[in-house]
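SEQUENCE-TO-STRUCTURE ENTRY
===========================

Backbone structure tokens: a row of integers, each naming the local backbone shape at its residue.

Task: work out the structure tokens from the sequence, keeping to the layout shown below.
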Amino acid sequence: MAKNTNDYTKMMNDMLGAFPVDTSAFQEAFKSQAAFADKMSKVVLDAAEKSTEISAGWTKSTIGKLGVVTNVKEDPADYTKAMTDFASTQAEMSAESMAAFAEVAKKVQMETVELMLAAGKDMGEDATKAVKKATDDLSAAAKKATAK
């Protein structure tokens, strides 16, 4: 019984060889995907850099203003005034920093939508080309197989 076993590897290779597929369309799709990932990474890294700059600036300002609060004061009422001034300044800096973060987020959102629309168009074109090429190849292989 062992002598009559089929060679499935040879059978699969023969079957796949009868229907050749041109991988150039898939390579183009991969290139498009890689280009999209590259552009998207730049958007993300730029946003991270700007967010870090905002955070660092906010922290530096806070620490600078906190020095005034910790200084020794002659009158106990001066401590209250220093804390009130610090809280007021902190609220203003918080609003400015949040607005800056919102601008970064808005820019990321706009750039992401633009990239997604462009990528969708590119990938749709690549997919159409790949399907057309595969259909043409399969039709040609089928005609060749029936002619034999």
The chain has three helices and no strands.
